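pinging the channel bc i need a second pair of eyes. not urgent but kinda urgent?? the chain im working w is below, pasted from the shared doc
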Amino acid sequence: MCEEEKYEVVERKTTGLAGLGTIEEMKANIKAMEERRSVVVEYIDANFEKGIDFGPTDDRSDKPTLKKPGGEKICRLFNTHPTWKRDDETWEMLGKPGNVVCYICYIVDNATGNIIGEGRGAETVGNKGRDANKTIKNAEKCALVDSALFTFALSEKFTQDDGGRQRSLTASKENFNIEIANARMGEQSELTDTQFIIKILLAELHKKRIDTAGELIHLRKVLFEQKLYDFATGEKNA
């Protein structure tokens, strides 16, 4: 760990696109960024190993997950290193929970000592059976990956581990299935609970599966609040 580098934000008098400079300056900056981006992609394609530097994500994304070794490797490429600081601001915003660890990861330029990017990460003690030490390590890893994605413009190529959100969605879908079973209990129907759900999905979302929390909220609303569908037939109520 090291002390946080001090830097200040300079307020500009011009706002919007005008604050980015002249047209010529913007064109030059865009060209330079595209060239930097090309260097990063070429390095990743030549040096990153699947399963070590990156891995699969959940089935809602076509982008692989950036892993800790990949984040460290990209830092070394640009002669930078990560350093962490306790993220008290986020922790306080969450209500100061005693079992949550929050970190900010700064990416520091080795040549100048300047902070060139940052990211945040948090973990809960007990998640996936983690003790305090493993919780700290995972929070540091999440912050490192987040900072690497932002600093080196990798979000178009990689995503961050989304296992927590996916587990939460899975649990919500399981609860939804139980709610449907309870609501249809005693109904004389030719449809099983699964067939009923699929029928509503096709009618409302034109698909056969629930992929997001927003879709789940929508289904609960039309079924339990608005009562738009008959629980026996799956047909829309008149």
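so The mean pLDDT is 85. and The helical segments are 23-47, 68-77, 88-93, 132-151, 163-184, 193-204, 213-225. — does that match what u expected or am i reading it wrong
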